[in-house]
Design brief:
heterodimer; A: mainly alpha; MetI-like fold; flat; B: about 325 residues; mainly alpha; two-stranded antiparallel ribbon; 3 strands
């Protein structure tokens, strides 16, 4: 290869690397820009936004946040969402871990059928049964009940949690359980003091994957919650948008309040989320 | 939520690895298995079966009247009598097909580019996936505000740079509302396919790529004859998940279309919204009609996902 050919090749390599980064950066800007616009808008007064919709804030005013948090009851919605989500995740994690353990470590009649039935739930659109559920809940006085909503979410999340947990149970070495059993521990004891500590990182992955969809869910609260005092964030936002429709700054602040928890969750737990998303793929 | 797990191979794996399975007392099995299975069976499976049963009757509020056979299904599918099932189905289908173009293809391109760079890969991945966990209803409202034709930053930017024709009420016009919704949806969820494609590309052994390079294969040739075969399972999973997601879509279009009415001239109507309306907004024979819509939705999603997966599996085996 002559010198000039080498130079040409290196130059081509550099240009293509630059263009690769250019494409990646444009795409990243598209991902981030809407969030930035919302964040900036949340610090500006509505009159300012009307004058120049894409401008920068003149100061760091928290007025919009105060209005959204207090006057627009975002604080109530926030607390309700937290209660429902945390209790649903805890309940689902408990029952799913036990079932996944039994499915992958015990041997019992109908096991294969039960596993198939449960795992099929991952592709079944659960919301199809909404109206009978609504009528049962209504007759039992469970409309506007946050605990009932949490139990519903836990039930719905069972198939996916069991599926994911079973993949994790498969990689735990058998010897670990056997040793405990030889020591005379019963199944409950083995589960509590050997299985659970061993599974902690996997449980964290499953918890993250349940947290976001439940925190974000709109359809169940829309149907099962009627009292605005019981609203969770997503359905609270719809009434908030009706109420403050002309107050852009407050709307932006409300959106920030709703999306910040999950964005923080994501930034801190990217590694776990990536490993959960790509479970069963590649290396 | 994206679930990138191969269900088939896991059930098979659970059954095959009998080596370590222990016979355990019935007591323990019941204690471990019953809570989860009971929750799931009572609150998910049973209501679906009840819905299917209910769909074959006429209803007066919650009182069951005469057996209707497939009458409710006829009513739902007959556009003249007020339900917009077929237009909604059309919108869902367009949503799915556009998503393939606007989300899946760009995700593949981005994952491919990320696979070729050394620095900043994790940062780019994080940025693309940042909107991934945000609630669809929040995403809908964000785009509603950004695209507002009077006070939205997008319109004001377009006017400022002189592209006035691009300062349109994108979500308020029947012709542009659906494609705009697909863009918002792709913005929200592109991170997942980028990560999943990335993991699949990362699994291609370096030696094979090197060998292809030495044989003089260019980047495109290497992609088609080497990397694509490793990507096939990932492509299958993503297309199946997108199919399910696009036919279930409800909250995003609820926010973008300003409620459950399906946006301007029904351009954002979906089967999910129609189900909500027949069950909770329209009172006449709600149980029967919404039951029929629900069963049709179930068949579409479950059956459709199975068919899509079957087709793609065949394509995978050809590799």
């Amino acid at each position: 290869m002559t010198g000039s050919q080498q130079v040409a090749l290196r130059l081509r390599g550099r240009i293509s690397t630059t263009s690769v980064y250019l494409v990646l950066t444009v795409a990243a800007a598209f991902s981030v820009a809407p969030l930035l616009l919302v964040a900036i808008g949340s610090f500006r007064a509505t009159s300012e936004i009307h004058q120049s919709p894409a401008g920068l804030p003149t100061g760091l005013s928290l007025d919009n946040y105060v209005t959204a948090w207090q006057d627009a009851s975002m604080s109530t919605y926030f607390v309700n969402s937290a209660i429902v989500t945390v209790s649903a995740v805890l309940l689902c994690l408990t029952v799913s871990t036990m079932a996944a353990y039994a499915f992958s470590r015990f041997s019992f009649p109908l096991q294969t059928a039960l596993i198939a039935l449960t795992v099929a739930g991952v592709v079944i659109p659960a919301r199809v049964g909404l109206l009978p559920l609504f009528n049962i809940f209504k007759s039992m006085g469970l409309i506007d009940s946050l605990p009932a909503l949490a139990v519903l979410y836990a039930a719905e999340a069972v198939p996916f949690s069991i599926l994911l947990l079973m993949t994790f149970f498969h990689v735990v070495p058998d010897e670990l359980f056997e040793a405990a059993r030889l020591d005379g521990a019963n199944e409950g004891r083995v589960f509590w003091s050997v299985v659970l500590p061993q599974m902690r990182p996997s449980l964290a992955v499953v918890a993250i994957f349940q947290f976001a969809p439940i925190w974000n869910d709109f359809f169940y609260p829309l149907v099962f919650l009627r009292d605005t005092e019981k609203y969770t964030l997503p359905v609270g936002l719809t009434s908030f948008f009706g109420q403050f429709s002309t107050d852009l700054g407050v709307l932006f602040a409300g959106l920030m309040l709703a999306l910040t928890p999950v964005v923080i969750l994501f930034v801190f737990l990217t590694k776990q989320i990536v490993s959960g998303l790509t479970a069963g793929m590649g290396k | 939520m994206v679930q990138a797990v191969d269900t088939g191979s896991i059930t098979a794996g659970a059954v095959q690895s009998r080596r370590a399975l222990r016979r355990t007392g019935t007591r323990w099995v019941l204690l471990f298995v019953v809570p989860a299975v009971a929750l799931y069976a009572l609150l998910v499976l049973l209501p679906i079966l009840v819905t299917a049963f209910n769909s074959f009757f006429l209803w007066d509020g919650t009182t069951r009247r005469e057996f209707a056979g497939l009458g409710n299904y006829q009513t739902v599918l007959d556009g003249d009598r007020g339900t917009a099932f077929l237009p909604a189905l059309r919108n869902n289908t367009v949503f799915f097909l556009l998503t393939l173009v606007v989300e899946v293809l760009p995700a593949l391109l981005l994952a491919g580019l990320l696979n070729n760079i050394r620095r900043g890969r994790r940062l780019f991945q994080t940025l693309y996936a940042l909107p991934f966990l945000i609630s669809p209803i929040v995403v809908g409202y964000i785009w509603l505000l950004l695209l507002d034709s009077n006070f939205g930053p997008v319109s004001s930017f377009m006017r400022a740079v002189g592209w006035d024709s691009l300062a349109q009420p994108w979500l308020a016009q029947p012709s542009t509302a659906l494609p705009t919704a697909v863009v918002a949806s792709a913005w929200m969820s592109i991170g997942a396919p980028v990560l999943i494609f990335g993991a699949a590309l990362g699994s291609v052994p370096d030696e094979i790529l090197e060998a292809a390079k030495l044989d003089g294969a260019g980047a495109w040739r290497r992609f088609v004859s080497v990397q694509l075969s490793y990507l096939r399972p990932a492509i299958t999973i993503i297309i199946v998940l997108d199919f399910i997601g696009c036919f279930k879509v409800l909250d995003l279009v609820y926010a973008l279309g300003g409620g459950s009415n399906g946006g301007p001239a029904g351009a954002l109507d979906t089967i999910g919204l129609l189900f909500y309306r027949t069950a909770f907004v329209e009172v006449d024979n709600a149980v029967g009609k919404s039951g029929a819509v629900a069963v049709l939705m179930f068949l579409l999603i479950f059956g459709g996902a199975l068919i899509v997966q079957r087709l793609l599996r065949r394509w995978e085996r050809e590799a």
